[in-house]
Amino acid sequence: MLDDGLKSLMALHGVGDTRSRGILIVDDERPNLTVLRNFLEAGYKVHEATSGRDALEIAKNNDLDVVITDQRMPEMTGVELLEQLRLLKPDVAGIVLTGFTDPPALISAINRARVFRFLKKPWQPDDILEAVRQASEHVYQARAIQRLVALLARRTQELDASLEQIKSTQRHLLHMERLGTMGRLAAGVIHDLRNLMISLGYVESVLQQGEIAADVRESVQVGMQGVNNLIQTLEAMHQFARGGSLTLDRQLLPPSAVIKDAVAIARMDLNYRMHKVELRVAEDLPCVMGDRQKLCQVMLNLVRNALQATAQWRRVGIEASRMDGKIILAVEDEGPGVPPQLRESLFQPFATGKGDGMGMGLYMAKLIVDSHQGEIAVLDRPQGGARFEIRLAIAN
Ligand SMILES: Nc1ncnc2c1ncn2[C@@H]1O[C@H](COP(=O)(O)OP(=O)(O)OP(=O)(O)O)[C@@H](O)[C@H]1O
Ligand SMILES: [Mg+2]
User: Fold this and answer.
1) What does the alpha-carbon distance between residue 128 and residue 97 come to, in Å, rounded to a whole number?
2) How far apart, in Å, are the Cα atoms of 156 and each of 8, 15, 150, 151?
3) In angstroms, what is the span from residue 177 Cα to ligand 2's centroid?
4) Ligand index nearest the alpha carbon of residue 317
């Protein structure tokens, strides 16, 4: 009888009867098969074979619970048959009918072939029926346990996956909530900055009219450009916080144009001129479908970071190239590389390793690159320093 605990587990998890009621009887003497069939047929679906080879063939093509086999057969003994059957159908129980007793040989056979029972000849039908009943009970139980284990393992996996999904939704909600706050803040700051720009525009126009030193005029221009960039960043943040995505103004765009724009703005910064900036733009690069202003903002953020990380007069490289069917925009430097403790959160908002950093530059960069269905990654250069790389699809 099945254990009660097992029964209730089976009911709980919807595991039904695992028996097929198929029995295979194997004997090289046909009359013996007929006798066996006669009293088994009432309760089981009986298959017959007159050799080990035939028996294996039948076992391959039919559902079986129990195999009853004579031990002494030409070519293959009963134990040898069960040994092979075990590889084919490990959950079928074997009963061996044997006319001689040789305990050591039998014990080793039991171990190798996992014989469920030996019955000595001459046997009584009742002995066989009882052995078959016990064997099929055993098979029933073993299969039920196996199914339950597989089922529970799958459910555990499903539960783990659901839990992970819930956690990620929760993280996302939290993130969106923070973004919402940031977006509202950004809207306020944008408003004030636009007012500031009006005043700065006026100052600039006055300066244009008077005799004024070139470096003063340049400082005002750099300042205005800085404020403009700030406004653009904040506008993008505000837009993202409101809609969960950035609106892109996409056009066919040569990669060299993005580099040109970014360099034109970056060089207004004194820090740019205090480094050896090397431009490597491959010729005749195909276009990408991109938002010119936003991609320029990404490159600008990367160039600024590189300049800030690199000692004066050292090299910063800006590159546009083509690799593996993608356009690569990259900025590399000779600085110390990205601090290990920042690696994980590098592209998250407010992740900064600088005393006065906002930790928004790379976050915005990733947001923009993601919106272009591109990729952004940081690599360690073998000779030291960091390399930030953007991969964008070529426009068709
Ligand atoms: N080229 C680089 N080399 C070394 N560390 C870098 C480099 N670029 C970024 N980092 C690290 O990643 C941090 C995050 O950069 P991110 O541009 O997002 O913010 P930030 O530069 O600190 O502030 P901001 O919002 O003004 O850009 C930096 O503070 C710095 O610690
Ligand atoms: Mg930065």
Assistant:
1) 9
2) 19, 17, 10, 9
3) 23
4) 1
DSSP of 256-317, one letter per residue?
A: HHHHHHHHHHHTTSHHHHTSEEEEEE-TTPPPEEEEHHHHHHHHHHHHHHHHHHS-TT-EEE
Q: What is the pLDDT of residues 168-195, one digit of tens each?
A: 888 888 877 777 877 887 888 888 888 8
**Ligand 1 pocket list (CB less than 6 A):** 301, 305-306, 309, 333, 335, 337-339, 342, 346, 351-354, 357-363, 386
Take atom 6 of ligand 1 and give the residue whose Cα is closest: 338
pTM beyond 0.85, yes or no: no
Question: Distance from the CA of 311 to the center of ligand 1, in angstroms?
Answer: 15
Q: How far, in Å, is the centroid of ligand 2 from the Cα of 353?
A: 10
Last residue of a domain, one of 221, 242, 263: 242
Atom nearest to 335 CA in ligand 1:
3
CA of 216 to the centre of ligand 2 (A): 26
Q: Are 273 and 322 in a shared domain? A: yes
Q: Are residues 214 and 84 in the same domain?
A: no
